[in-house]
Amino acid sequence: MLPALAGVALAVGLSTALPVTETGRLGVSPTTVAGLCLAGQLWYVAFALGGVDATGAPAGEPTDGSTARGDGPRLFGLANGVTLVRGALYATVAGLVVASPDANVAWIAAVGYGVGVLLDGLDGRVARTIGSETEIGKRLDMAYDTFGFVAAPLVAVVWGVLPVWYLSLSAARYAFRGAVGLRRARGRPVFDLPDSDLGKYLAGVQMVFLTAALVPAAPTALVRTAAPVVLTPSLAVFARDYLVVSGRVSRHAATLGDPE
Predict the structure, then answer these.
(1) How many CA atoms lie within 13 A of 193 on its CB side?
(2) 235: Cβ contacts below 8 Å, ≥ 6 apart
(3) What is the pLDDT of residue 122?
(4) One-letter-per-residue 3-state SS of the chain
(5) 19 pLDDT band (50/70/90 cuts)?
(6) With contact defined as beta carbons under 8 Å apart, do 191 and 244 qualify?
(7) Per-residue model confidence (pLDDT) at position 24
(8) Is residue 26 predicted with pLDDT exceeding 70?
(9) pLDDT over 50 at 154, yes or no
(10) Is residue 177 pLDDT above 60, yes or no?
């Protein structure tokens, strides 16, 4: 129920505040797509955790602190609130995939995604500062990290800013997680990821590049020229990480040459 309510609230809020109420390319309003995306992400996280009710506790678990697990995940805490705002911004960007990049909406994607990028990491810092780190917060953060790398490239491709093959970035993230899940389901060993921050650095580069690419004033020719240079290292890291978690390459060998 909560994911649906959040999706409706976002759709209604956008239809009131933003000039994107017209029917999109597929006969669907961008605000409706945005609401569905937010609801879907929240449903996915709740499903992964076995259900989360409005009190913030796992479904079927007491909310008075009497459980051995202590207080359940707090969906409405400050840190998770920051994460939810980021999710709403990314959902708004995703909704624009059915909108035309005219003067009314051209800046919404860049600003929405850019602010979401600025909020990335802030939720974790807030949670650690006030001692409110929760499993649902971690799941939300991971879900929105992945979804942001789908929403922004997809809009950029549909709007003709990036070539269609740039969506391999989105596919790689899901393919990696799916391949790891498949190994676990088959009972095969899954080794730890490399002790390396290279993936985080490259993710940051991707976020900055995608924000810049969505800015209406950015020269499309320049963006398309830079795209393979920015994309290739990220795809290479996904390949490296899978080789490590599948045991084909050792963690030590994978981190040789990484920046300190």
Answers:
(1) 12
(2) 168, 169, 172
(3) 79
(4) CHHHHHHHHHHHHHHHHCCCCCCCCCCCCHHHHHHHHHHHHHHHHHHHCCCECCCCCECCCCCCCCCCCCCCCCCCCHHHHHHHHHHHHHHHHHHHHHCCCCCCCHHHHHHHHHHHHHHCCHHHHHHHHHCCCCHHHHHHHHHHHHHHHHHHHHHHHHCCCCCHHHHHHHHHHHHHHHHHHHHHHCCCCCCCCCCCCHHHHHHHHHHHHHHHHHCCCCCHHHHHHHHHHHHHHHHHHHHHHHHHHCCCCCHHHHHCCCCC
(5) low
(6) yes
(7) 62
(8) no
(9) yes
(10) yes
- Please state, in angstroms and rounded to a whole number, the distance separating the CA atoms of residues 58 and 94: 28
Between 137 and 71, name the one with better pLDDT. 137
Q: In which band, very low, low, confident or very high, does the pLDDT at 53 lie, cut at 50, 70 and 90?
A: very low
Of 228, 239, 243, 237, the closest CA to residue 257 belongs to 237
Q: Are 166 and 105 in contact (CB under 8 A)?
A: no
Nearest CA to 183 among 239, 252, 251, 245? 245
- Residue 60 pLDDT > 50, yes or no? no
Which tokens sit at 172?
Answer: 């790689």
Whose CA is closest to 213, among 151, 256, 255? 151
Is the pLDDT reported for residue 159 higher than 80? yes
Question: pLDDT tens across 79-120, in order?
Answer: 778 889 999 999 999 999 998 888 678 899 999 999 999 988
**How far is CA 69 from its chain centroid?**
28
Q: Are 27 and 115 in contact (CB under 8 A)?
A: no
**Single-letter amino acid, residue 25:** R
Q: In the block, which residue shows the tokens 């940051």?
A: 204
Measured CA distances, 35 to 3, 39, 68, 91, 259 (Å): 9, 6, 36, 7, 40
